[in-house]
Here is the input.
Amino acid sequence: MHSTLIGRAGTLVLAAAQVPLAGAQDLAAGKARADAVCGACHGANGVSVSDTIPNLAGQKSAYLQSQLRALKEGTRKNAIMGAIAAQPSAEYIANVAAHYASLHIGEEVAGGGEPGGVLGVP
Here is the structure.
């Protein structure tokens, strides 16, 4: 009986490992969206192009998602970001947030750029 329980438990663990996690973020999709939409203002590596625009690199995914949802719902006001955040789906937001959360200080710039200061920005 003991070996039967262990065998069943092992089967459940293997079966669970094969099922994709609900809400798992797609970093490649998040990077593609960030490059196409967000990078113009928030920088190619999440370091903004202006002191008045927040850096997104290294921020917690949950924080970024909550801020984008607040902009989308209108509970946080910003004329530019309100219009941009009104469009994406929850999946889009999760993917972009996961991408920016995955960026770490001191990484080289993607595409062969020079390593430098924060996130490879010299």
Summary: The first helix runs from residue 2 to 18. The helical segments are 2-18, 27-42, 61-73, 79-85, 90-102.
